[in-house]
Design goal:
single chain; alpha/beta; seven-stranded parallel sheet; 12 helices; globular
Length: 331
């Protein structure tokens, strides 16, 4: 074996060891002891994975937890109640691929709740089926970006009724891989790449952008808004993504097996992956802190173009149009 090959193998092992240490043992830990009795939290996509862990941890602190998901099973509620002894758990059906479903849910919440203290915008999908949504949109963009954008707007009045309201968006390190350019945003649309595997990273980039602008606009109401990236979590998220692929390109397969490799070697449990979100949502350390892109992975870095204010404002403006915000719903 040549010296060059040996050196390359040593380098590969060193890089892998670094990744294992950095990702697997470098996750944020929420050590806050804050009690949430009397608080109300909404967790979107809370029926499984990281969302379920968020709901479980919030419930364990005495919080009233509302789970909004397309998967609504009584055993999910029962499991949380049995583990936390907190009976104040609600499951609500919401289809995040439908703006009307979002509006119906928001109207119902305004009737049943007098305030909302924590909004966990956790819902997401890696790659949706290639059919358009009932609103005629790319489903991956709608579920990951447009629908949380709309829901957050519709719940602002409930958040204003809290003394310390916090919004947390789940984004992804994949947001750094987005392929958007200033030309990607027109007056009435966000154009995506022809490669569908890029849809997720672009949607998560838009999540970072919208969270930053929510933070700016809501600061005057004492509502904080932050994003976090959970790293690589050992959930069925990406396996479910592959099931939504009708035709498998080389890019699809490469992305899938790349993720599977990372899950095996550097993946963390859903509970570990949820710690950064919990810290943002409950810790006194983050009271009145807003506009962060948080997590120990890639600390202090932001996706390219996230600091381009004009570009970000155009994403916000076109998102308002796409989701059909009325004049009185805009911030």
């Amino acid at each position: 074996m040549s010296t060059l090959v040996i050196m390359l193998l040593i380098l590969l092992i060193a890089v892998l060891a670094y990744l294992i240490i950095f990702f697997k043992f470098g996750y944020v830990y929420c050590d806050s002891k804050v009690c949430l009795v009397g608080k109300t939290a909404l967790v979107t996509g809370g029926s499984s994975g990281i969302g379920y862990e968020l709901a479980l941890q919030l419930a364990s602190r005495g919080c009233k937890v509302i789970i909004a998901d397309k998967i609504v099973k009584e055993e999910i509620k029962t499991s949380i109640i049995n583990e936390t002894h907190n009976p104040n758990i609600k499951l609500e059906y919401v289809d995040f691929g439908s703006f009307q479903s979002i509006r119906n849910f928001a109207e119902k919440l305004k009737i049943t709740e007098d305030k909302l203290d924590i909004l966990m915008n956790n819902v997401g999908i890696g790659k949706a089926p290639e059919r358009p949504s009932e609103d005629g949109l790319n489903l991956t963009m709608q579920i990951n970006h447009y629908s949380p954008f709309l829901l957050t707007h519709l719940l602002i009045d409930l958040l204003k009724n809290s003394s310390d309201a916090r919004i947390v968006f789940t984004t992804s390190s994949a947001s750094f891989l987005h392929v958007m350019t200033p030309d990607s945003v027109t007056n009435d649309n966000i154009k995506l790449s022809k490669y569908r595997m890029n849809d997720y990273s672009c949607a998560k980039f838009c999540t970072v952008v919208s969270s930053d602008i929510f933070a700016e606009k809501l600061k005057k109401y004492n509502i904080s808004c932050n994003t976090y990236h959970p790293g690589v979590a050992k959930t069925t998220f990406f396996e479910n993504t592959l099931r939504n692929v009708n035709t498998y390109s080389f890019t699809d397969w490469w992305a899938y097996w790349h993720i599977m490799f990372l899950k095996v070697f550097v993946g963390v449990t859903p509970r570990q992956a949820s710690q950064a979100a919990m810290k943002l949502a409950v810790s006194n350390e983050f009271k009145n802190v807003t506009g962060l892109f948080y997590g120990k992975y890639l600390p202090n870095l932001r996706p390219k173009l996230a600091d381009n204010k004009d570009f970000c404002r155009r994403i916000w403006s076109v998102s308002e149009k796409v989701v059909g915000l009325k004049a009185n719903e805009k911030l």
